[in-house]
């Protein structure tokens, strides 16, 4: 008798993360490997975080605060929301999962883009919902077509702004225009994982204003990118109390560990570190743009800490050849790849190795 798995997961493939440095060192016998594959913060994280972590190392035998009270309050205070409108999670990854579990039934339609963050699609499939996938238009979300796909079966819409992996952004005006056309019983998740890197002034700077105007909007953010806490797995969501209360029913108990809770509070307090991260990212982005232009490499305009580019070489080949030389980037599809913006020495090394390859 065969074990019966849920049919919904039959064709799913596990999430493929950026390749770890240790794996590449081992595989190619290298001492030095640089990873520009997972949009991590090349500056690390705020020194205040280390102090906060040390303050709880003697408490590891105790369960974390299951209500995540202090972190909720710190986030609410910083972003002018109520603590009851905030829900931290184990990375925003977990909240993508919780959201799909909270809202989706078989037969429900979920509108999302292609290409965008892959867990929107896999969690919809897992719940037996029907994904309605709208291709990007010139590397940007095609908001007009997404609007036109709304039916009375639509339950959830995923909006990643700026988008991963293309880095492209929609303006405040475009976001309002889109939200105005969505029926109020359709939930829109506004994923702002990269908000701290946005340079354009026409970006929706303070998305918490959406909470009053659109009770169907869920804002998702993370401490993994600009705040540099990817290893600790902590993100947060803001939405109406009604939505938060329902997401809260679905999340697991103690989903944000004690170290992550104190680290995130300390990280939030150090906005100088965020400013520095923004500046280093901007300098790196301008350098990479210039180099790409000189090399004749086509790229999408990025408002994030990564650049999506047409590498001229098939992406798996570019990935493998760079790896052999100690550089990990992220292959996407065809000749498209994504590189995370690093420190200037890392960016320069990437360009040097890439040029060597192109000239080979
Ligand atoms: C758009 C987007 N959303 C969510 C996530 C998940 O981030 P985390 O689970 O580390 O908070 C990522 C990570 O790459 C992302 O790019």
From TrEMBL:
InterPro entries: Aminotrans_II_pyridoxalP_BS, Aminotransferase_I/II_large, HisP_aminotrans, HistidinolP_aminotransfase, PyrdxlP-dep_Trfase, PyrdxlP-dep_Trfase_major, PyrdxlP-dep_Trfase_small. It catalyses: L-histidinol phosphate + 2-oxoglutarate = 3-(imidazol-4-yl)-2-oxopropyl phosphate + L-glutamate. Pfam families: Aminotran_1_2 (PF00155). Residues 32-346 form the Aminotransferase class I/classII large domain. Its EC number is 2.6.1.9. Keywords: Amino-acid biosynthesis, Aminotransferase, Histidine biosynthesis, Pyridoxal phosphate, Transferase. It comes from the Bacteria. Pathway: Amino-acid biosynthesis; L-histidine biosynthesis; L-histidine from 5-phospho-alpha-D-ribose 1-diphosphate: step 7/9. GO terms for molecular function: histidinol-phosphate transaminase activity. The modification N6-(pyridoxal phosphate)lysine is found at residue 225. PROSITE patterns: AA_TRANSFER_CLASS_2. Its cofactor is pyridoxal 5'-phosphate. PANTHER family: HISTIDINOL-PHOSPHATE AMINOTRANSFERASE, HISTIDINOL-PHOSPHATE AMINOTRANSFERASE 2. NCBIfam families: hisC. Belongs to the class-II pyridoxal-phosphate-dependent aminotransferase family. Histidinol-phosphate aminotransferase subfamily. Homodimer. This is Histidinol-phosphate aminotransferase. It comes from Alkaliphilus hydrothermalis.
């Amino acid at each position: 008798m065969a074990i019966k798995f849920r049919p919904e997961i039959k064709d799913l493939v596990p999430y493929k993360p950026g390749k770890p440095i240790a794996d590449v060192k081992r595989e190619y016998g290298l001492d030095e490997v640089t990873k520009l594959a997972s949009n991590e913060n090349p500056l690390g994280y705020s020194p205040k975080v280390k102090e906060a972590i040390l303050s709880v190392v003697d408490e590891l035998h105790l369960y974390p605060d299951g209500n995540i009270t202090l972190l909720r309050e710190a986030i609410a205070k910083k972003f002018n929301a109520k603590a009851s409108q905030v829900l931290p999670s184990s990375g925003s990854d977990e909240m993508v999962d919780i959201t799909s579990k909270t809202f989706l039934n078989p037969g429900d339609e979920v509108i999302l883009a292609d290409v965008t963050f892959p867990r929107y699609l896999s969690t919809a499939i897992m719940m037996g919902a029907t994904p309605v996938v709208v291709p990007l238009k010139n590397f940007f979300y095609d908001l007009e077509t997404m609007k036109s796909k709304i039916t009375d079966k639509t339950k959830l819409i995923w909006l990643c702004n700026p988008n991963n992996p293309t880095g492209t952004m929609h303006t405040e005006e475009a976001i309002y225009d889109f939200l105005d056309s969505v029926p109020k019983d359709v939930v829109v998740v506004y994923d702002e994982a990269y908000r701290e890197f946005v340079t354009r002034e026409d970006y929706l700077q303070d998305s918490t204003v959406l909470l009053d105007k659109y009770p169907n909007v869920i804002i998702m953010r993370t401490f993994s990118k600009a705040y540099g806490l990817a290893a600790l797995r902590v993100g947060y969501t803001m939405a109406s109390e009604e939505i938060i209360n329902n997401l809260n029913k679905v999340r697991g108990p103690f989903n944000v560990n004690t170290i992550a809770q104190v680290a995130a509070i300390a990280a939030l307090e150090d906005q100088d570190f965020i400013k520095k991260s923004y500046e280093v990212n901007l300098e790196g982005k301008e350098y990479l743009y210039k180099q790409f232009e000189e090399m004749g490499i086509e790229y999408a305009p990025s408002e994030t800490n990564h650049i999506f580019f047409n590498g001229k070489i098939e992406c798996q080949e570019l990935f493998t050849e760079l790896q052999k030389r100690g550089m990990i980037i992220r292959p996407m599809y065809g000749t498209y790849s994504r590189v995370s913006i690093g420190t200037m020495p890392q960016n320069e090394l990437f360009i040097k190795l890439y040029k060597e390859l192109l000239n080979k």
